[in-house]
Amino acid sequence: MIPNDGHVMIGIDECNGVQGNCLKPQSVYGGGVWCLQPLLVVGEKEQQHPYPCIHNLNSQLFALSIVPCRRDDPDISNCIIKAFEDLRPRLATGELGEGYRSPPLEPLYLDNIDLSRGRQFETVFSDIVVKGGSNFTINELSANATNLSFDLVLTLPRLDFTGKYFIKLNILLLDIQGRGNMRGYCENAKALVKIRGVRVPMSDGLEYVRFTRLPLKINVDVFKLHLDNLFNGDPILGAVGNTIINDNQDLYLSDVLPSLERDLSKKFLDIINIMMANITFDEMFPL
Predict the structure, then answer these.
(1) 10: alpha, beta or left, given left = phi > 0 and alpha = psi -120 to 50?
(2) In Å, what is the CA distance from 49 to each residue of 266, 271, 273?
(3) What string of H, E and C letters represents the secondary structure of the chain?
(4) Over 60: is that where the pLDDT of 79 sits?
(5) 7: closest CA among 45, 44, 48, 43?
(6) So what's the pLDDT on residue 225?
(7) How far, in Å, are 108, 165, 249 from residue 111 at the CA level?
(8) Which of 32, 174, 202, 251 has the least CB density, counted as fewest CB within 10 Å?
(9) Once rounded to an integer, what is the mean pLDDT over residues 177-204?
């Protein structure tokens, strides 16, 4: 174990002793015990992120999950793409190796999305569950391992989602109201992702990998939404309301996507830092 200096994962014995900072088993991050330890964020306020409490984690466990890419490899982008392809099944379940877990991508739980803009436009989506997030394809990747800077373009063939909704809005002189379950999907979603990290020197003389920013932008070709119980369950008005909502997506999709981007950015940043929590820069990108 590397020293517990407030920026790294700590051992399970120490973790159990930090009662106020440990999340309960079976939390949103999956089974096991997770501790909240500060993560160094350059240029921003230091934040807390969950790290798994694993006893005696070492580079041998890490090697079970990810094949490192040499930092001077002229084809490092393809090496990283292959590493992610090999890791994809484990990202879906969160089982990265023997005793080593991360928040699973299947399914993905998102925060509430509030699109309210006054009395004429009140819309809230909650309890959102997304499936299909692990089926990504990396189309392009520009990598600078030395500076921990990575730009990539991803394609997600299809994302299916369910959740709850509350809606009260006026479209084409029709007052649409309802509260209940929702479901939908989007197809051919493309995401531009920028990942930025730093090398953090620790008291053991080694540099560890910490990622600090992961902004992303999403575009979708197809987006379909169905809201149950519109107009108190009236089947005719409900069908009309759903048709109007899907035919006028420009009124709300431009607000849905930024909220989705912020939520996914935070969750993916959590996952990647959990994966790197005990890994040195030289282990991740050897010479």
Answers:
(1) beta
(2) 10, 10, 8
(3) CCCCCCCCCCCHHHHHHCHHHEECCCECCECCCEEEEEECCCCCCCEEEEEECCCCCCHHHHHHHCCCCCCCCCCHHHHHHHHHHHHHHHHHHCEEECCEECCCCCCEEECCEECCCCCCEEEEEEEEEEECCCCCEEEEEEEECCCCEEEEEEEEEEEEEEEEEEEEEEECCEEEEEEEEEEEEEEEEEEEEEEEEEEEECCCCCEEEEEEECCEEEECCEEEEEECCEHHHCHHHHHHHHHHHHHCHHHCHHHHHHHHHHHHHHHHHHHHHHHCCCCEHHHHCCC
(4) yes
(5) 48
(6) 93
(7) 10, 13, 21
(8) 174
(9) 93
Tell me the pLDDT tens digit for each residue of 216-259. Answer: 999 999 999 999 999 888 999 899 989 988 988 877 787 788 88
Q: Which residues pair with 92 in a beta bridge?
A: none
Phi/psi of residue 266, nearest 5 degrees: -65, -45
Are residues 230 and 239 in contact, defined by beta-carbon separation less than 8 angstroms?
no
Distance from C-alpha of 68 to C-alpha of 83, rounded to nearest angstrom = 8
Task: From residue 282, give the alpha-carbon distance in Å to each of 31, 78, 147.
Answer: 30, 19, 13
Determine the average pLDDT of the residues in 114-118: 74
| pLDDT at 277 > cutoff 90 | no
Q: What is the pLDDT of residue 32?
A: 38
Q: Would you give the end-to-end CA distance of the chain in angstroms?
A: 23
CA–CA gap between residue 170 and residue 16 (Å, rounded): 53
Q: How many CB atoms lie within 10 A of CB 260?
A: 24
284 contacts 199 by C-beta, under 8 angstroms: no
- Round to whole Å and give the CA distance between 28 and 111: 12
Spatial CA neighbour of 167 closest among 237, 114, 224: 114
